[in-house]
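Appendix B, record 7
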Amino acid sequence: AVYGCGFGGTSHLHVATASADGTVRLWQALRGVVVATFRGHHGQVLSAALGVDGPQVLSSGEDGTVRVWNAANMPHEIARFGLTASECDIEERNAHELMKMRLLPPPPAEKGHVGAARRCILTHDCLRAISIGDDGFVNVWRLVSGHLERINHVALSHDAAKVVTCSNDKTVRVWNATSGTQLLVLGSHTHPVTSFSMSPPPLVSLDHDHTDAGGSRDASRGRRGGAG
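Structure tokens (predicted):
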């Protein structure tokens, strides 16, 4: 069974579906062809959403988590919010053991929804996700800390160790794919950065160049950076 779907991507040419088999699928809407399948939820996936222009796919499920997937290159999970029930149990047991040993417990983790996360949506700028759950809460999640405006593109580095993003805030940012830590900011652009290429290195990014008053808005400039 399919529990939810969301249209998105450039010109709304893609649709993401949430399925009872625990997968999220990205479809090419006009051809009805699956272009990516995402696996990771524990149990049924209840909702799916897409960025307006970018490659982000958002999903939520009965495991209580909200997950963000990259559809630009190899399908993979790039962010997760909330803990599954088993992870919550493990965390509580670890905290109990630390208390028994009279050690200070670690800072509490963000557990997200208690019970299923029923629905999720992306804000228009793709900077935040909103989810609702069986626990009666509405949660707002910041997808990437660092960018100040809309994120236009995301990709995984060749060694799968870094995530690269670009934004209307005129920057390209490089992140540790495991920890989410920001590693590098390339801020030499004077216009919103709409795309970048990582093959072959070095990283080349493109911005919109608003030339003269009566000129074209479509010209682009390339910037080179040392990331990737």
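Remarks on this record: Helices lie at 85-100. Confidence is low (pLDDT under 50) at residues 98-109, 209-228.
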